[in-house]
Design brief:
Length: 244
């Protein structure tokens, strides 16, 4: 699905992404965890084709990415909704830009809103909604374009703990139902363990650890001993300084 080799990126002369390598197979997921400022958002922008690497190659389905790609869905940190547009129009945006027929847009948007459980909100504006509801709108807007890869930049960090878990469950469900490959960056250890089939630990622009998560996909994982064990392991990895 996606293969990243020797990726480097600097803003001016500050290197922010340094020699990053990974791949995600079709229908799999990767969670990247790291502290604020370690380069997570920059990496997402590179993978989304919004920034160009200084060195290295990003390939999706064998094609080199140097621009935005139709089938890549992106959910950024602040939802990215237009406050002056209704829920319906926000979700319809990408379809309108792509010149879909009006009836088709109506059908596709209705279907996406239904899937996210927010049909009754179609006429509301973002300011009238809770954080969790806005996040559902943002996800609906991505999913309506039928992506084969979803990139998420700390999508749930502004939500309260229970809403966050509800949204994580939703992502897992969508992933299972659609065989959707995704990458999520987060600074939340629980989130990485719940949503990452593989988990990369990022520090100062580099991946310092890459681990397989054999427990991925279990909706009840948070209640289990293994979950806490893996969280603990990650916490230790993230506090190691001598690896740099
Ligand atoms: N547009 C920019 N110009 C210059 N430096 C930037 C820019 N955006 C981010 N940075 C710097 O790059 C580093 C990584 O930022 P970012 O990718 O946003 O990290 P994260 O998402 O992990 O918090 C930080 O030191 C940040 O200050
Ligand atoms: Mg960020």
């Amino acid at each position: 699905m996606i293969k990243v080799s020797n990726l480097d990126f600097s803003y001016q002369n500050e290197k922010v992404v340094e020699n990053i390598n990974f791949s995600i197979k079709e229908g799999k997921s990767l969670a990247i965890i790291g502290p604020s400022g370690c380069g997570k958002s920059t990496l997402i922008y590179l993978l989304a084709g919004l920034l160009k690497p200084d060195e290295g190659v990003i390939k999706i389905n064998g094609n080199i990415i140097n621009n935005i790609r139709k089938k890549t869905g992106v959910i950024l940190q602040n939802y990215g909704l237009f406050p002056w547009k209704t829920v319906f129009d926000n979700v319809a945006l990408g379809l309108k830009v792509r010149d879909y027929d009006k009836n088709k847009i109506d059908d596709m948007v209705k279907n996406a809103l239904e899937k996210m459980g927010i049909s009754e909100l179609h006429n509301k504006f973002p300011a009238e909604l809770s954080g969790g509801q806005n996040q559902r709108v943002a996800i609906a807007r991505s999913l309506v374009l039928n992506p084969d890869l979803l990139l998420m930049d700390e999508p749930f960090s502004a939500l309260d703990a229970l809403t966050r878990e509800e949204m994580q469950n939703l992502i897992l469900k969508i992933h299972k139902e659609n065989n959707l490959s995704y990458l999520i960056v987060t600074h939340n250890i629980d989130e990485a363990v719940f949503l990452g089939q593989e988990i990369a630990v990022m520090k100062e622009g580099k991946f310092i650890h890459m681990i397989d998560n054999p427990y991925f996909g279990d909706i009840k994982l948070r209640e289990k001993e293994e979950f806490f064990e893996l969280c603990k392991e990650l916490r230790v990895m993230m506090s190691e300084d001598d690896l740099l």
